[in-house]
TrEMBL record:
Pathway: Cofactor biosynthesis; coenzyme A biosynthesis; CoA from (R)-pantothenate: step 4/5. It comes from Maribacter dokdonensis. Residues 5-132 form the Cytidyltransferase-like domain. This is Phosphopantetheine adenylyltransferase. Homohexamer. It comes from the Bacteria. The record marks H17 as: Transition state stabilizer.
Amino acid sequence: MRRAIFPGSFDPLTLGHHDIIMRGITLFDEVIIAIGKNADKKYMFSLEQRIKFIEEAFKDVPSISVKSYEGLTVDFCKKVDANFILRGLRNPGDFEFEKAIAHTNRKLSEIETVFLLTSSGKSYISSSIVRDVIRNGGDYTGLVPDSVRK
């Protein structure tokens, strides 16, 4: 069984995330969307809301699930018996940041990180941009899945 986790805060889930997850499920038997809890971070949406957004967005895909976790991502991978970490890359800056994390994770646990490039039409979307649009009353509907728009 090829099980991957797709870690992040998903505050909120974006069409960029959705793109990577749907393409990732073609590579793995199962993808667990892993919402990391960070006590130092201020979230716009509660953990419960973020879980609901994700569960609703992927309700028709039984091989995709969502779980939350605290601590090291590699420890969560061991807990759920995942062999891979799935990550999306939007730009060269993402690559440099993610490469350092992937090397560290591999050193700690020998887990493989698989990178997918976000589709070109979605590469500009980030959760921080979506939050800024929402805070300022802009139209964010073209940036997030239907489950977040409700």
